[in-house]
Amino acid sequence: MQSFLRKEKNIMGVSQLKRKARKNHVKSTQRTQAIKLLTKTPVLKNVDVEELKKGFKK
To answer: Which pLDDT tens digit goes with each residue over 20-55?
Structure first.
């Protein structure tokens, strides 16, 4: 009887570990996506400042 209970307990533990592993994976994926979004910088373009100033004078 005890061996039966022990087996059931192990099965429950394994399913909980699988669920925890899935949650950990989702958390890490979300964290890396947030970091990528925060560190993403726009493309810098060469801007002619004098040309812009001429456009504002008109």
So the answer is: 999 999 999 999 999 999 999 887 788 888 888 888
Q: Whole-angstrom Cα distance, residue 7 to residue 20?
A: 20
The two tokens of residue 58 are: 């008109």
Measured between alpha carbons, how far is 1 from 27 in angstroms, rounded to an integer? Answer: 39
Q: Helices (DSSP H) in 1-58: which residue ranges? A: 2-39, 49-57
Question: Is 0.90 topped by the overall pTM?
Answer: no
Q: How many domains does the chain have?
A: 1
Range of the domain at 23: 2-57
- Quote the CA–CA distance of 24 and 8 in Å, as a whole number: 24
Instruction: Give CA separation, 54 vs 41, 45, 58, in Å.
Output: 28, 19, 7
